[in-house]
Amino acid sequence: MAGKMNIVAVLGSPRLKGNSSFIAGRFLRTAKALGAATRTFELNKLSYRGCQACEACKKKAGMCSLEDGLKPALEAVREADVLLLASPIYYGDLSSQLKGFIDRTYGFFTPGFRANGHKSRLPSGKTLVFVLTQGASPKHFEGVFERYAGMLKYHGFTRSFLIRACELVGPRDARSHKELLKLADKAATEIISSRRKG
Fold first, then answer.
1. What is the pLDDT of residues 12-69, one digit of tens each?
2. Which of 72, 98, 132, 157 has an alpha carbon within 20 to 30 A of 146's alpha carbon?
3. How far apart are the C-alpha atoms of 30 and 108, rounded to whole Å?
């Protein structure tokens, strides 16, 4: 194993101690205990805009040209081995905070990306971890993970994990669901161990 695994977490909940953030925190603590380096960005604390469709990232900029609170997070993703995205499901989709972040990853596409197979500026072989929480039953909003994980495959996230928690009505309900914490521990352990084997 060459160096520590670099994990970047992007938390999309406006509740910084809510369910998705709590589960993400458990994953990060386990990964850190296993030797990973971790860095966390809480989007609701940052000041940033959504994609401006300016196309500067396809010209001289080389990546998203907006100089705002999201720039360090996007730069960290470039160097990350693992990207953890955490969000509650609001109105059948990701939080607006996390959706805005994902829109800004458009800057990672190279010029002419549509014609060249959606080529990304990011190196391939990255791992994606999605933590999604919702008050609704499991039969609702099943396609959210597949939609966004499918998009991020273009940026080199060839391996993905889902930690999905349903029927969490209160913002602290995850704390009493031991099986969710075990899922977070299992995912972190599997990801770190695969790096060691490699």
1. 999 989 999 999 999 999 999 999 999 999 999 999 999 999 999 998 767 899 999 9
2. 72
3. 29
Residue 133, Cβ density class (10 Å: 0-12 exposed, 13-18 middle, ≥19 buried): buried
> Dihedral angle at the C-alpha atoms of 154, 77, 8, 192, nearest 10 degrees?
60
Please choose, from the candidates 157, 149, 85, 146, the residue with its C-alpha nearest in 3D space to the C-alpha of residue 122.
157
The edge-to-edge listing of strands for the beta sheet with 37-42 is 37-42, 6-11, 82-88, 126-133, 157-165
Instruction: Give the amino acid at 6.
Output: N
- Angstrom distances, CA of residue 80 to CA of 22, 23, 124, 135, 159: 21, 20, 11, 31, 13
Cα–Cα distance, 28 to 192 (Å, whole number): 11
> What is the architecture, at CATH level 2, of domain 6-197?
3-Layer(aba) Sandwich (3.40)
